[in-house]
Amino acid sequence: MSATKTKLAPAHTLSRRGEGPNPIDIHVGARLRLRRTLLGLSQEKLGEAVGITFQQLQKYERGSNRISASRLYNLSQVLGVPVSYFFDDMPSPDQIAAEVPAEAMSETDEFESMARRETLELVRAYYRIEDPGVRKRTFDLLKALGGDRIALLEE
User: Fold this and answer.
1) Could you tell me which residues belong to the region Disordered (predicted)?
2) Structure letter (DSSP) for residue 90
3) CA-CA distance, 30 to 112, in Å (whole number)?
């Protein structure tokens, strides 16, 4: 009977002192910030809910401090998302290894725009429209105003 060795996937390179935060910690922190802002919670309120200071939460959101598994679980409970939420849209290992992937930069820019207060207020107002027909027409109007006329013609 021969023993077969299982080949493990390579682990992401961990950042060493002085190299800055690990890209995975930055991603998890960004997802934490996005969910917190979508819910309209301040750093102070979320910190109180999980028993940490708002300064510690800031460090988590920047990725400068790693979030332990138990803390990530607590945050997921308070924010009403599964733990996997924090890893959604995670860049591939190749993108993480690359210095400055162009695609990741555009995703970061898109993420930043989604986290703006103006965007969040617009989304909340949109979902307060009760009539589905009015909501659809509002959506179509916004797409047209934003220059997405091709998508409107295809519909």
Assistant:
1) 1-22
2) P
3) 9
Using a cut of 0.85, tell me whether the model's pTM lies above it: no
Per-residue 3-state assignment (H helix, E strand, C coil) for 4-64:
CCCCCCCCCCCCCCCCCCCHHHHHHHHHHHHHHHHCCCCHHHHHHHHCCCHHHHHHHHHCC
Q: Burial, 9: exposed, middle or buried (Cβ in 10 Å; 0-12, 13-18, 19+)?
A: exposed
Buried b (16+ CB within 10 A) or exposed e, 25-59: bbbbbbbbbbbbbbeebebeebbeebebeeebbeb
What gap in Å lies between CA 38 and CA 99, rounded to an integer?
Answer: 30
Tokens representing residue 25 in the block: 């910690």
Both tokens assigned to 59: 């460090």
* CA distances from residue 98 to 12, 60, 110, 113 in whole angstroms, order as listed: 12, 23, 19, 23
